[in-house]
Amino acid sequence: HKEEKFKVIHALKSLHQYNKISINRILIPDGPIKIPFSRLFHSKMCIGSDLAWLGTSNITPDYFYSVSGIGCTIFGNTPSGASLINYMTKFFDRYYSSNYSTYVDLSK
């Protein structure tokens, strides 16, 4: 698991060199009863201004090649597509701007 985390951070740092990106890590605290995997932010989405992707797999290269899953691309050039992208953006922003979110410094 540690090796996988290193690969992800390395990929993000590489991307950050060419186009400054901001990464936050979202950690939701345990609830009163510890139920495994019950308090995860487990969304798999990539959102642009007029295009979005929503799927069941993590957005890392090995998942695209070795894990089965499903995903869909949402185009914002239709009223329903634009509405869904707007909803996804609000969902993302709610957690990205929350107290559960901490900045990941990619310059280190």
From TrEMBL:
InterPro entries (alphabetical): Diverse_PLD-related
Protein name, as recorded: Phospholipase D4 (Trinotate prediction)
